[in-house]
Input
Amino acid sequence: MAKTPVAAGDEIPLGKVRKLSVRNFRAIGPNTVEVDLDTIVVLVGPNNAGKSSILRAYEVAMGEGSAAGKLSEQDFPNGSIDEANPPTIELETEVVGDPPAKKWIIEVDGRKVVRERWQWKGPGKGERQGWNVELGDWDTSKPWGFAGVANARRPQPHAVQAFDSPEKQAAQIDQIVLSLIEERAKAVPAESGDGLEFDRLSEAIRALQTKVLASAQADIEDIEKQLTEMLAGVFAKHAVKFDPAIAELEQFKLFAGNAMRVGPSDGYMSPVSLQGSGARRTLLWSVLRIVSERDQNGTGRPHLLLIDEPELCLHPSAVREACRVLYDLADKAGWQVMVTTHHPAFIDLARDNETIVRVERNEAGEVQGTTLFKPTTAQLSTDDKQNLKLLNIWDPYVAEFFFCPRVVVVEGDTEFSAFRLIVEELRALGDGSPIPQALLRDVVIVRARGKATIVSLCKILNHFGTGYSVLHDLDSEFIDVKCKETGGTKQQKNGAWTTNANILAAVQTAPDPTRINLVCSEPDFEQAYLGYTSSSEKPATAVRALQQAGSGRDAVIALLYALLDHAQPLPHGAARTSDRLSANDLQPDGAPASEIVA
Output
């Protein structure tokens, strides 16, 4: 845990935010939305569902004692003030070392946790309370007392909103870098040693400013170099230049302010405010990381980066780079990241440090949050993580299933191509489609690229609390292999058959296995519905066959309908996997780990 000095000789170790709970705030109504914070939390869900309200909630709570902690009438649900249901924000923060009084400490999983609540009876400032363990109730007094003291015990928020103005983003970037340089520059000792050089004659101040600027030049160049290197991963052949201007004498400041410029290393460099949105955002993330890395005293305050839709205005390659930057930032000690996104690239299933929460409105229009994935509860094996890592490399969009309510997992490219074609064609038919449009509207076809990976995906989908469907090839129970002793062939148990049992076992661990539709094609997709043996050009051959009217196309449509609506009958060639496996097949996992095929 990082530490922050609050007074000479008084260093207080700091923990991280453990949980954020919000109700009656902006888009969020009376049903409490809880977010368990990991090192990085990814909030997914439809537009206007309340994701940005969650980010804003922490920023408002940490703004206690300043204008940032005051609410306007527009911050109340529907712009209506209801004193019986006030906006409420709750935080649970881990503390170590020197905690507040014992009455504020809750023991959770061997850690000391302090619980605080903010409420607003009307526009303006709110009231903070602490949970008193001895009373078992909220107390009008509060942990750590004054807001300034209490805020220093929690991670510092850095909010990057989706549509900040160029000027605001530029000011954020410039001020962070300027503060870092000034902090270093002020450490330059005065020649007289009496610490009063800033109060001497204006000529001496000008001389000192010039000396300080020269002394800080090495740090300025170092920061320029680091920012240029970070920017190069996204914007090739661009450089960053920072020119601290000498302040006017009457200001008695070391530097006048903002002068960061960006542009081609051998061309014109313009102010940050004139850069594109993607460049400004990338610079801001890079600056925040540098601030963390350059803490001079080793007692830096923990940080919480709150970033709204980081994919905005970024080129596809820049999206991947931004994702890497955010995950790397989250890996650093003292940093947490909470991000809202509509882009599957920002979900990396191979990471051990992320929690994924879906925020959406239910049928009654109420905002609710559901934790879809957390590594500590998903119980992914080493093989699972390796499968997901490889799958994520081959298909960065595989995590799209976190964004859709209706999921169909298929084994390979043929099924994926066939279903995507059918879905698009049936959507175009409107009400004339044999499958209702309501089922086609929000479906996502997930390509597992191998049976072993289906097992890994099922373990994740089981945590959604909703139904899903899986289609895989049954394959043959035995295969012919060459016998070294006789030179002939002999039959051997097919490893793919064992994986069938592993898929079934994974499905049966779901909270309600009856909501999951596990179907197999006998023996494979091509032979079961299209009437031919698979070839090296399986997807292309299948698509050509489906573009022609006939029994094959009808069978695939019927199969898709049955996968989307579990009450529909399966076509000939399809079967429930549980009906095709014997009790002897349902043994502990023994499938080969690396079965992903490109």
In short: The chain is about 35% helix and 25% strand. The radius of gyration is 29 Å. The longest strand covers residues 10-23.
